[in-house]
Amino acid sequence: MGKTIGIISIKGGVGKTSCTANIGASLASQFGKKVLLVDGNFSAPNLAMHFGIFDYESTIQDALLRKTPIQRTIHKYSENLHLIPASVEGRAITDHYRLKDCLDPLKEFYDIVLIDSSPNLHGEILSTMIASDELYVVTSPDYPTLSTTIRAVKLAKQRNTPIKGLIVNKIRNKGFELSLEEIEEATETLVLGVVPDDLKMLEAVSKTAPVTSHAPKSNPSIEINKIAAYMSNSEYKDPRFLSKFKSLFLKKDLRKDEVNRVINKE
C-alpha cells in the first residue's frame, strides 16, 4: 500500500501548489515512484495548469459528489505521474470525509498520493488533513506567513494527522528574512526542505513543465529533489560541485534542513 501525503498552508502566495507539482514530478521522474497528484483546492484549483492540462471531462468533485467513479477522474501525464484535477467552477464539498473514502482504495496502485490542499481555513483543508497519512506545511520566511503557519500546524495537531515538517519556500538568503531556527522555534516543527526564490521556477510555470525537467541542474530543482528523496525514503546525491566538496571535507557544515532530514531518516 502507498501513502497519502497532504501539502498544506493557510496563506496564498507561498508557492504551495508549485511545490506540490514539482515534488510530485520529482518523485515520479527522479525516483521512479508511481505518483497520483490530487487537486484538493476545490474552490480555486490550478494544479492541472502546472502540467498544461486544461481540458478534462471529469474532476475530483465529480467523484466526491458520486457522479462518476474516482478511477474515471484520473488523467495520465506520464507513465509514473497521474493527476486528478478539480473543477474551476469551484463546486463546494460538504462531506469532509469523502475525499479519504475516494483516495484510500487508490493507494493500492500508487506509491504516493500527493494532495494539494486549499489555502483557506474551512472544510477543504480539513478534507486534506483527514485524507492524509502525513502532512507537510509550506511557508515562507516572513512574519505574516509565519503567523498563518503556526495556525496551520495547530490545526493539523488538533486533527491528529502527523506533521512531518515544514518546507520553507521562496528563500532569498537576505538578512531581513526569518532564520530556519526562528521558524522552527515559533512553530515547534522541523524544517525539512528549503526552496530558493529563483526565476527558473517561474519559467517552468510559463512552460507548464516541472522545474526538474525545465531546468534540472538549477538550485530549485536540486532542492525539490532532496525533499522528494526524503518523502520517499530514497537516496539522492547533490550533483553541485560545492556540495560534493562539503560532503568530502566539511561534513559538519550542513544546513539546518539537511541535518533534520538525516536525523529523521535514522
Key terms for this structure?
alpha/beta, 11 helices, 266 residues, 8 strands, 8-stranded mixed sheet, Rossmann fold
Which sequence of SSEs, written as H and E, runs from N to C? EHEHEEHEHEHEHEHHHHH
CATH topology-level fold name: Rossmann fold
How far from one another are the termini? 22 Å
Annotation, overall tally of beta strands: 8
How would you sum up this structure in a few lines?
The protein is an alpha/beta fold and 266 residues long. The protein has helices at residues 16-29, 60-64, 98-103, 123-131, 143-158, 180-187, 199-206, 211-214, 219-231, 241-249, 256-265, and strands at 3-8, 35-40, 75-76, 81-84, 112-117, 134-139, 163-171, 191-196.
Helix-strand blueprint:
Elements: E1 3-8, H1 16-29, E2 35-40, H2 60-64, E3 75-76, E4 81-84, H3 98-103, E5 112-117, H4 123-131, E6 134-139, H5 143-158, E7 163-171, H6 180-187, E8 191-196, H7 199-206, H8 211-214, H9 219-231, H10 241-249, H11 256-265
Helix pairs in contact: 1-9
Walkthrough of the structure:
The chain is an alpha/beta fold and 266 residues long. The protein has a single domain, classed as 3-Layer(aba) Sandwich (Rossmann fold). The protein contains eleven helices and eight strands. An eight-stranded mixed β-sheet has the order 3-4-2-5-1-6-7-8, sandwiched between helices. α5 links the parallel β6 and β7. The two termini are 22 Å apart. The mean pLDDT is 91.
